[in-house]
Every structure is written in C-alpha cells, then in structure tokens.
Amino acid sequence: MSSINIAIDGPAGAGKSTIAKAASKKLGFIYVDTGALYRAVGVNALRRGIMPSDADKVEKSLSDVKVELKFVDGQQRVYLNGEDVSEEIRTPPASMAASDVSAIPAVRAFLFDLQRDIASKNNCLMDGRDIGTVVLPHAQIKIFLTASVEARAQRRYKELTEKGMTVDYNNVLEEMIQRDYNDSHREIAPLKPAEDSVILDTTELDLQQSIDAVLSLVEEKLGK
Ligand code: DC
Question: What is the pTM for the complete model shown?
Fold first, then answer.
C-alpha cells in the first residue's frame, strides 16, 4: 500500500510548522519539517568555520556529515553526526545559514533521498519550500501556506521572545524579507506554489482557523 503524502510549502514564518504539527496529530500522520535538515547542514558549516554561502567548502563538508531525523512520540528530532541539534538549529544565525546552504545544489541533492525515503514509508505531512514542486510532485495534497511579510515577522518575533531570546522586531522583519528574497530567487528549487497546489493565506486567520482550513482541505480530498 502506498503512503499518503501531504506537501505544505510556503515562506518563512507562514506558520507551516505549527499548523502542520497540529494537523498531522489530528490525522495520525508523522510531521516532517524539512527546513530542519537544511538548518542542520547550516549549523555544521557554522561549527566548522565555513561561510554557509561558500558552495565549494559546504559541498566538501558533506562528505563526512550525517543528518538524521528521528520521531519520538510523533515529535521530530534532528541529529547532526549523532548529536541532537534540535534546539541549536532554531537560532537566527542558523536560520540565515540554512537559507544560504539551501541554495547549493549539492546540499539539495544530499537531502533529497532522505526526504523521499521518509515519505515513501510513512503517511506524512511534509513541510518545506519545494515539497510539492520537487520532492513529492505526486503528493495527494499540496498546500501553499502564506501570509503577509509583516504578519510573518510579527509571529516569528513573538515565538523568539517567548523562548526568552532578546530580538529586535525590525531585525526580524529585515531577516524575513532577506530570506524571502533568497528562497524565491535562487536558481535551484525556488520557493513557488506547485501548479496543482491550493493557496492558503493565513494573514487574517488565527492559528485554530488555519489548522481547520488545512484539515478541511484534507477532508475534501481524502474524505478523512
Ligand atoms: O522552514 P525553515 O525556516 O526551517 O527553513 C530554513 C531554510 O531552509 C529556509 O530559508 C529555506 C530552506 N529550505 C529549503 O530550501 N527547502 C526546504 N524544503 C525547506 C527549507
């Protein structure tokens, strides 16, 4: 029996992970956050003193890097060479590093099989930037989740300050604009909605309304 795959793509801060996590729990699917994989590769570069935008050096660093996802009680943990880096990958420098390394073709190729393998073995809801367009072009459901850049920066700011980090809203907004630009203008697998995706704009929706909107799309398609 083949697995059911739901692809959720969209820009940084659109609420993909929170919404996808809640929806997958309700559906009994695993939730796969593919951004975490790019973040782990970015952290690996930072730790080794490699500029994340230095394609040659980052590519060479892949030869002895192992990135793994493990699912504990449905929760994803990310491992870099056997070490759990699930928290470290969430810092602002790791976000920028992830955006830089994700533009390197060798990095995308390196992470491609891992993502495909998980999707072929599990009913999953996978989120990222190129899931519906490149990684899972045959996903049964594709959703492109978006919101205005200000709404997304506001949400990210709240998330970081709630975690006790000291950040400036304007910096968060600037970084968001920069990442949007990087993610949608890179040559390889740029962020864009798949032709057969449903676009869901959450600017005016609260979290519960967004989750309900995703679940009703799934119900419509799968009768689930
Ligand atoms: O979703 P996120 O913010 O954790 O993603 C971190 C970076 O990784 C983001 O700037 C773009 C990149 N990314 C990607 O290129 N393709 C994916 N499927 C997921 C993330």
Answer: 0.90
